[in-house]
Amino acid sequence: MAWTSFRFSTFPVTDVSLFTASWPWQAAADLLPAWLQWVANSPDPLWSNCLLETTPGAPMPTVQVGGVWAGHRAEASAQLGALTKAVGEPASQVVGENGFEDAMYIEAGCSGLSQAACHLAGKHPGGSLPRVLRLLKSDILNEPLSDKGVVAVLGGIKQRHEDGGQGEVIFDSWGGAINRVAPDATAFVHRRGLASAQYEAAFSAGVGVGALRSAKSWMDGWYGSLRPFVSGEAYQNYIDPALSNWENAYYGANLARLRQVKAKWDPDDVFRFAQSIPLAPKR
């Protein structure tokens, strides 16, 4: 019998500061490139995301920046101030200091919930979270978007807004310790990323086929318009069944070695799904 084990090195945690700032949609064309530049030059204690979103019935799409600073509130405010200086004061802003565990519950969408309640309803005793249907795609940005790339991002949100559907893109900052590891040092090849982008349309249970087809048409068109401005890499934790050339997008130059590992430790392909590591060709 074979066993797999993991060894973890722990370290003490301290209180962290969470922040959220929102701007009117008219600021999005300036905010997105400014945010990418801001996170590119940020110190290790900062993680941030940038959300561009439209929801049915809203008068305009929205743009929001949030994140975590591994330090005190005053330091987080100073970091956020560097962004607001570049794009102007936000319409609203909240910066607060939280215990680490509490902050992680907030970031997971489980603010005020117990550990048991922070599970899907019906899937875990005490679970209370609703299941949401999502249509997703992803990209990894290895450099800031060009002006045309920013226009393409905003154009997709504007189109979805005009269609009256829900749609969003979430940019998550990378860099820091992630990028100080060589691309071939681990299975995870994406070591040059500035940010990831997750494109999403969400639905309630029981949505009609027409709405699903409309969202897919919008997503495919938007995603296609962005191809000239992104790396072609994708984040393998955001599985995309429709992604072409997924082997290279997920695993890049590490694919050949991963196939060798697969052949050694799982030659019968027991651990598999539609986009798992394929077995190396037999010689």
Write the CATH architecture name of the domain at 16-98 and 132-243: 3-Layer(aba) Sandwich
First-last Cα distance: 27 Å
Q: What percent of the residues sit in helical stretches (DSSP H or I)? A: 25-40%
What is the 3D form? globular
In the predicted model, the low-confidence regions spanning at least 5 consecutive residues are none
Average pLDDT figure:
94
Computed structural class: alpha+beta
By CATH, the topology of the domain at 16-98 and 132-243 is Vanillyl-alcohol Oxidase, Chain A, domain 3
Cα gyration radius (Å):
20 Å
DSSP strand tally: 7
Query: Biggest sheet: strands side by side, in what order?
Result: 4-1-3-2-6-7-5
Fraction of residues in β-strands: 15-25%
CATH level-1 class of the domain at 16-98 and 132-243: Alpha Beta
By DSSP (H or I, 4+ residues per run), the number of helices equals 7
SSE succession: EHEEHEHEHEEHHH
Q: Major β-sheet, in short?
A: 7 strands, antiparallel
Topology diagram in text:
Elements: E1 16-23, H1 28-40, E2 46-54, E3 62-69, H2 73-87, E4 92-98, H3 100-107, E5 133-141, H4 147-163, E6 167-173, E7 195-203, H5 209-225, H6 246-251, H7 255-265
Characterise this structure.
It is a single chain. This protein is α+β, with helices and mostly antiparallel strands and 283 residues long. It has a domain of 195 residues: 3-Layer(aba) Sandwich (Vanillyl-alcohol Oxidase, Chain A, domain 3), CATH 3.40.462. 31% of the residues lie in helices and 20% in strands. The protein has a seven-stranded antiparallel beta sheet with strand order 4-1-3-2-6-7-5.
